[in-house]
Amino acid sequence: MSEDVAAATTVPATAAETSPDNPWPLQLLSQKLKMHIDRAPSAWVEGQVIEMNRRGTNAYLTLRDIDAEISLPASAWTKVLDRQEIPLEKGSRVVALIKAEFWLKTGRLNMSVKDIRPVGLGDLLARIERLRHALAAEGLFSDARKKRLPLLPHRIGLITGRDSDAKKDVLRNAALRWPAVEFEVREVAVQGNTAVAQVIAALRELDANPNVDVIVIARGGGALEDLLPFSNEELIRAVSAASTPVVSAIGHEADRPILDDVADLRASTPTDAAKRIVPDVVEELARVRQARDQLRRGAVRLVDRETDRLDSLRSRPVLASPEVMVSTRHDDVERLKGRSQAAVTTAVVRAADQLVHLKAQVRALSPQKTLDRGYAVVQLAGAGPAPGVRRDVVRHPDQAPSGTSLTVRVAGGRFTAESTGGQEPADE
């Protein structure tokens, strides 16, 4: 008894304390694993049933992830499966309540399905709408985030199914509209659990290629379950983060995948995508011809209008007979010259007449005229004042007493005389 207690006390308490010399019994490891796994809670998971076998009261299932190559074997009581109104079939999409169990005797880990429910179309649509509203609230569908497609893309990235009709429609219709267009095609799975990963990988590869101007994700419609990858949140965020414009051409009008909302352009079908990403060469050539005709007509109208203006200007008298400008001004100058000469002549004649009149006035008032009328100027003779000084004029008899020498100036000249004395003036 004491030896057993001693042995128990030497067993390591934790796995880290074990060693080759002091190992755990296998039973202890299995017990600890079972205890640990039993503490793990049950979890609801979503997947697709790819295998299902009934054996008596037990059923063995294999569930596969919707978007990845991951599968998980599980078991369930057949009564759990029989509770479903619609029997589960291979390929059904389900949600299952799984609890991990460890079988102590055999050391096997088992996933026990406690409940299982098929996912109907209504559930899928409701889930898609919830995701759509959540992403819209983040602004991933905002028009401000959408990028404009180039007017004429030189190289188009095409992500589509392998040898699909969608691929042929896009290539054929784009080449018919613009023969010089080039494509970078990436063929991927467009449905199934690998579709999301492959589409994202192709999208990122084409987005990193600087020669790709626009990326088209095309699929020719299908059932709602087949289109679920194009409503996957990871794919939607990858499209939103792409720097190259992305066109969605899924071709399903009834239930639009979320890809249509986040894409920079939504095309109703792959054929519609081809029509919207490249212009029609016939239409463009027609527009070029129309533009050339408009330019030609505009140029002709301009030349005609300017020709009419030139003709109008040339028909004016001043341009028809340019010398008229000179001759008219010459006549004006001659007329002004004549008027100036007449005015000057009139002024000279008037001034001459005035001069003659003034001369007559001056002569009439001059002393000589007085002398001519018989008057004389009597001046005192003698030494007189200094040369150049005027002699005194006798104005009164007292100035010339008897014997005074006088000089008498008359009209014909002057002579000397001697005063005999003064006399009183006689009464008139």
Query: Separation of termini?
Result: 208 Å
Give the integer mean of the pLDDT values: 85
Looking at the overall shape, the CATH architecture of the largest domain is: 3-Layer(aba) Sandwich
Largest sheet: 5 strands, antiparallel
CATH class descriptor of the largest domain: Alpha Beta
- What would you report as the Rg, rounded to the nearest angstrom? 66 Å
* Low-pLDDT regions: 1-6
Q: Count of helices?
A: 13
**Total number of beta strands:** 13
CATH superfamily of the largest domain: Succinyl-CoA synthetase domains
CATH fold topology of the largest domain: Rossmann fold
Overall domain count = 3
Beta-strand percentage? 15-25%
Residues in helices, as a percent range:
40-55%
Shape: rod-shaped
Provide a brief overview of the structure.
With 428 residues, the chain is of the alpha/beta class.
Give me some keywords for this one.
428 residues; alpha/beta; OB fold (Dihydrolipoamide Acetyltransferase, E2P); Rossmann fold; 3 domains; five-stranded antiparallel β-sheet; five-stranded parallel β-sheet; 13 helices; rod-shaped; disordered N terminus
